[in-house]
UniProtKB/TrEMBL annotation:
Gene3D superfamilies per record: GIY-YIG endonuclease
Organism of this sequence: Christiangramia antarctica
Listed InterPro entries: GIY-YIG_endonuc, GIY-YIG_endonuc_sf, UPF0213_domain
Domain (GIY-YIG) ranges: 2-78
Record family assignment: Belongs to the UPF0213 family.
Entries under SUPFAM superfamilies matching the protein: GIY-YIG endonuclease
One Pfam family hit: GIY-YIG
CDD domains for this protein: GIY-YIG_UPF0213
Identification of the protein by name: GIY-YIG nuclease family protein
Amino acid sequence: MKFYYVYIVLCLDLSFYTGITSNLDKRIQDHNDGKHPDAYTFLRRPVELKWFEKFTNAQEAIAWEKQIKGWSRRKKKALIAGDWESLIEFSKNYTEYGHPDSRKTK
């Protein structure tokens, strides 16, 4: 069975990069070796793997990668930390729930 990995790395400049691969160890090594000079991570090396999820369905993995790439930094940090409560809070629609600064704290 073939596996696909969606992953998040922390770059030297403290930005996050989200990607997909079928060989996680090799892909992280490629990032750190600078195999692709045009890649986002090339000038931001070394990178450190912070989170990954394994999939058996390529289309599902691609969908997750695209979804995570659209997330805010704080939402990615919540995912990495396994902070599900914050992840849900950061997912709320401002139109429906108002801006987080205007919400009452519990």
